[in-house]
Amino acid sequence: MKLLRAEISPHLEAILSQMGVDKAAWDPLLQPSREASQGDLTLPCFPFASILKKAPQAISDDLAEQFPSIEALLNVSSVNGYLNFTANPEWLADSVLSNQVDVGSALKNSGRTGENVLIEHTSANPNGPFHVGRARNAILGDTLVRLHRLHGDDVRAEYYVDDMGKQVGVLAWALENLSEDEVNELLSDREPPSERWLTKADHQRVRWYQAAQVLRKDADEDRKAQIENEIGTLVHASEHGDLGVLESFESAYTPVLDGMLATLSRLGISYDTFTKESRFVVDGTVADLMSTLDALEIAGTADNGAGFLDLGQRGLKGKTEFFYRRGDGSSLYATRDVAYHMWKWGESNRLVNVLGEDHKLQAKQVGLTLEELNQKRPEVLFYSFIKLPEGKMSTRRGNVVFMDDLLEEAHAQASAVVRELRPEYDDEKVAKIAEAVGTAAVRFNIIKVSPEKGFTFRWEEALAFEAGSAPFIMYAHTRACSISKRAGTLPTSPVQCPSVESMPEGLVELLRLMCTHNDVLERSVREQKAHLFALHMLELANAYNGFYRDCPVVRDGEVDGFAFSISEMARELMRSGLEGLGITPIEEM
RNA sequence: GGGCGUGUAGCACAGCUGGAUAAUGCGUCGGCCUCCUAAGCCGAAGAUCGCGGGUUCGAAUCCUGCCACGCCCGCCA
Description:
By secondary structure, the protein is α/β, with parallel strands linked by helices. The protein has 22 helices and 16 strands. The two termini are about 35 Å apart.
C-alpha cells in the first residue's frame, strides 16, 4: 500500500538509521502483509539480527516500542520478529474520500504519466476467421492497451498486417483459380460452413484457402508442381515489392481482415493504426537495411549469396545463423520485422509486442539484430497456446472453435440465465445484458490466467457466470449502481466517518482493497501482467459484496451519507476497472 | 540432441525480486431471501507446492540433477 508506506517510511528511517541500518537495507523488505489479520505492511527483522547483534524479536519489539503514534496507523505490533503495521480505517476512509485513489479511464489517452507506449498485438494472418487460439493474443494485447490507458499512459494499439508472403499468396491464388464448385468438392469431407456466417467474408474466403491447402497436399504431382510454381511466383513478386501483385493480395485479404475485425470489435477490441508489412519493402527501407546488415562485423554470406548474421557471437545458443536475405536477394519475414521495429522506435519510446511462444526464437533474433544496429529491443509478452481438449487448433485442418461461434453461444447462454433470473425484463434489455455478460465471460476467462500458462479451452469454463468470473464483478457493480440510483432520490445524512470500533469488517476490507487498487494497477502495467489486475478486480468485487452485506446505505428511507460516498467511490473504481479489462460495465443485470 | 517455458487440493488457478498458518474459484458437504438485485452471503472438509540434493536464521519461491508435458531449433510466415 503506497499510501501507507509514504506515511510510515520517514519514521522508520529516523528510527532505523539511528540504530545503524540504512534505508537501502530495510526499504525493499517493507512489503504488503501476507494475511489481512497481520496488518497492511510488514517488516521482517531477521536480516538486521546479524548487523545489530540482537535477536529479531528483540529488534521488532524495539521498533514497535519506539514507533510514534501517527494518524494513519491503528496499530504497530511485533510478532515473531515481524513488525506489522495496520492502517487506521478512518484514515483509509479519509484517503478514499479525498480522492487519493485514482479512478482513471481506460477508454482514452490522458497523458497523465507522460509515458507513451506502442503496443503491437494480434497481427494475425488475414487468411481466415478468428478462432479462440488466436484470440488469446488479441485479448491479452487489448487488455494491456486498456490497462496502460487506465494507468495514465498514452497508448497506441497497432496491428501489423501481414500482407505479403505465403499465407496471403495462397489465399489470393485460390480466389483467382478455384471456382465455388471446386472448393466445395475439395472440402466435401469436412463439416459444411455454418449457415449463420454465410455472408461473413472471413468464413467464406477461408474455404478457398483451405481448398488450396488440400490441393497443394493431395493433387497429382504435375498439378502440385504447377500450383507451387504459380504461388511461388506471386510470393516472390510480393517480396520484391511488385505493386500489382500486392494490390491483388490486398483485394483478396481485405474482406477477410474486415471480418476478423468485426469479430474483435464485438469483444471490444480495436486498433489505432494498421501498418502493412509491404510498406517497408516498397519504400526501400528493407533494401537499405540489408546493406547495413551486410556491413556488420558478424555478417556472413552463404554459397548462394544468402546473407546471415552469426548471432552466436552475441550469445545466441543452438542454431546461430540468422538469415536476413535469401540467395535470390529478397528479404525474409524477420528482416522486414527488423525494419518495422526501427520504424516503430521512431514512433514511440516504449514498445511492447504480444507474441505466441512459437515466436520466441525469432523475437530473440530480431532483438539481437536491433541491438547490433544500436537500437533497443522491444518488451515482449509471450503467451502459450490455447488448445482444445482434443488437441491443437489449426485453421488449415479446420480443427477450431471460431470466436464467432463462441460469442454466439456465450450470448445464448447468458440470455437464458437472464431470462430465468429476471423474467420481467423485455427482449431488448435481455439482449443487451446477454451480449455484455457473454463477451465479458469469454474475455475474462482468458485474461485471468497468466499468459505463460498452457491453456485448454473448455466451454463450461468460458461460459461460467459465477464467482471467479466476469459476471461476478459486473454483478457487484450493478449493486452499486442500483444503490446509486435509489439514494439519489432520498434524504441523505452528512458524511460522517464512524469510529474505528463501530466499523464493520466488510467496510474495513473494502477500504483496504480500494487503497491498494492503484498499486496493483501500477504493477500490472509495469510487469505487463494483466491477470494481476483481473484477480484484484475479483477481490474488489468480493469486498464490495462484504460491504453490501455489512453496511446498508439506505435504511428506513434515509441515506447514510458516509456509506453512500464509499459505495460511490467503489462503484467508480469498479466501472473504470471493468473498462480496463474490456468489460462493459452495465448498470443492471 | 540443444534452447525456452510449465508442473501447487478431485479440477482449474494465484503466489515465484526468499519471510509467519500456501490465497481463490469450480466441484463436495451444511446454513442464509418479510431487509439496497441470492449471477449473492456465511461455514466445513480437501495440498508429500513433480521427485532428489544444495544454499539460508528461513525455500512453493534461489542453485543443481532427474522426470513429465508444451513450444522452438526453415534461405517459411
